[in-house]
Amino acid sequence: SLSAGLDLPGRLLFATLTLMTLIAILVFIEEAVYIYRKIPSSKRSIIIWINAAAPVRGGPGLHRHTRHTGKFELEFSPSPRFFAIVIHKFLMMMIKECGGQKVLLRRFENGHFTITTGPCCCCCLCFPRVPITRQTLFWLKLGTFQFAVFRPVLVFLSIVLWTNGNYVLYNVSPKGPALWISCFIGALTLCALWAVGIMFRKVRILLKCKNIIPKFALYQFIVILNHLQTTIINIFATQKIIPCAPPLSSTARGSYIAQQLLIMEMFLITVISRVVYRRKYHDLEPPECVAEEPGDKKQTP
């Protein structure tokens, strides 16, 4: 255990990170109980999943903070796979907040999705707008669902190759599987984030009364801090920009620093998420009713 050999400042830091992790877990449990009691069942599980993103990502980091960890363990930990599901849940939450898929189609009956948005096609201004139909909603949901399905499959494949000695994490040559698996995971991630960005751009005005912009901002912070920040630190460690500090190598020290930052950042996001999601929001007014057909009157409301 690395914590056994820490000096006094290191032990104080470890104690502070432990306290932050425990508080974040307790805040999430209290928030989950509140959501279970106060939120309708159609939205309950989705909101709990989204609120769990920060404590789930920060909590296991405390365990990895006390050990000699490398990038391999960070890549194959359960947290990134859990967050892949959260991306899909956030898209479904926006649809639920609009009243569900049927109500959303009625609200935007003649509307269009703007697909020239990040992170994929923000510069492709020549792309046409896509009409909002049941089929386009299906493709958006498929864009996030595929990431939740294929990310664990690719991670499992990487573990199998690693146990056979065929997967070397730092081997980025075209002949090695690490480069191709990483590129494929990156492409799946961009497609999932693109689908969420398209939906958010359309519903952000409608859902402004439900604070969808702060919720989306928190979601974006989790994405950036978990992926971009960690990747940059790992690159610095691989290139020896972060010097080694015995008994830690450069890569292990980079992972050590990344976990320290993530624990503190996820703690702040957990507390802010409780404030944002705890508020009571009024339901949206129903869309204007279309002319009823004779068969509609027989249906139960």
TrEMBL record:
Name one cellular component (GO) term: membrane
SMART domains membership:
Solute_trans_a
Parts of the chain that traverse the membrane: 12-36, 138-162, 177-196, 216-237, 257-277
Q: What InterPro entries does the entry give?
A: Ostalpha/TMEM184C
Localization annotation: Membrane
Where is this protein primarily located? membrane
Q: Does the keyword Transmembrane helix apply?
A: yes
Is Nucleotide-binding one of the keywords UniProt gives this record? no
What is its membrane topology?
A: Multi-pass membrane protein
Q: In this record, what's one Pfam family?
A: Solute_trans_a
Output the superkingdom of the source species.
Eukaryota
- Entry keywords, A to Z: Membrane, Transmembrane, Transmembrane helix
Q: What is this protein called?
A: OSTA protein
**Native organism taxonomy:** Eukaryota, Metazoa, Chordata, Craniata, Vertebrata
